[in-house]
Amino acid sequence: MIIGQIINGIVLDHITAGRGVDIYETLRLGELDCTVAMIFNADSVKMGKKDIIKIGTPIDIDLDVLGIIDPGITVNYIRNGEVAKRERISLPATIRGILKCKNPRCITTTEQGLTQEFRLCDEENKVYRCVYCETKADTSSLK
Amino acid sequence: MRSVIDIMDLSVGEIDSLIETAESIIKDPAAYSEKCRGKKLATLFYEPSTRTRLSFEAAMYELGGQVLGFSEASSSSVSKGESVADTVRVVGCYADIIAMRHPKEGAPLVASRYSSVPVINAGDGGHNHPTQTLADLLTIKREKGRFDGLTVGLCGDLKFGRTVHSLISAMSRYENVRFVMISPVELRIPDYVKINTLDKNKIPYIEVTDLESVIGELDVLYMTRVQKERFFNEADYIRLKDSYILTSEKLAGAKADLSVMHPLPRVNEISTDVDSDPRACYFKQVLYGKYMRMALILMLLGV
Predict the structure, then answer these.
(1) pTM across the whole model
(2) Quick check: ipTM above 0.90?
(3) Which among B70, B158, B161, B224 counts the fewest CB atoms within 10 Å?
(4) Which of A102, A111, A112, A120 to mutate to probe the B interface, most B CBs <10 Å?
(5) List of domains in chain B
């Protein structure tokens, strides 16, 4: 299978096999008018199988969101056909402005202009808690 | 500029220092009666809490300072829709320190992020109440003379009782502390407290449903109220409610130097015949709360 080389854009590599579609949907890649290539179950020495997404234009990617969905992804920034920068994603220590606290007694439900903020409390189980009320975050909307 | 929102904002060393100051105040209150002359405490109470507000006010008056504020949201600008952030920015122009009680969890943290003066959390919903924990710690220190090596019984509603969670966090930092959790199964301590505090710090604890079977092991018994509305059905409530009422008969099986504590207000979970027992510490606990609030105000004002 031959997928064309990207000149300027982004390659999301080392996606856990099967998570590619989640990432495609969460990052709303379907709304882009450039080439987006999805590769499922590519062979990987490290992972056995992996998914890859190639995006044919430079875009801003929310690395925090990516980190929550699938920590371990590598983001390759391609410029003039070369890898200009490579970032290994991990679980972000804090998440701001993405998730909403579900606790009706939390100050975030009434205070105007307050950014939602969650802190990583349990890395192993990917547990985030609201910094204001410590309610466990519901990250399922990002999966 | 420092605020205290959670008991864990204070290190063990700082708590020791607050206890030392509180004990010094108890010994010689006159030496502290002018310490806050010219300073003002704003008590921003968005929900009524007479005893905590009076404790803060008494603390500031006894330090020679003055007090301003409001005691319910309807008499403040919040009824016009003002945000917590704006309120504290305004109040910071009038006062040197703020004590805030708010029904919404996290409101004092928001306040501390916008305030130009120190903020003390005087209770945010069912979340944190650090000055209650300071009162509890001074009570334990005064009554037992130490924190290390104590067996602490926590009885009643351990699921929703914020004072219990804070006390567990604070006591978990001392050596050889053991907890005995006495509650209905439905009101057991939440898993996150077990995982994040007890298990993480390898603190030994047991969970039981019956007070009488364990009362003889305890050095401290911290009672809380079991509220009827917390039960899933009335039959369970009726079956269990008396198990968590402390009476003189149950105390007969306890150690002679047990300290019985309660964050108050009590309803019926400690029988009034226990009040005259020398082991009852809950009214002393109120007084110690005032001294710890005095010590905290002094620390945060740097005087």
Answers:
(1) 0.88
(2) no
(3) B70
(4) A111
(5) 7-128+289-301 (3.40.50.1370), 131-285 (3.40.50.1370)
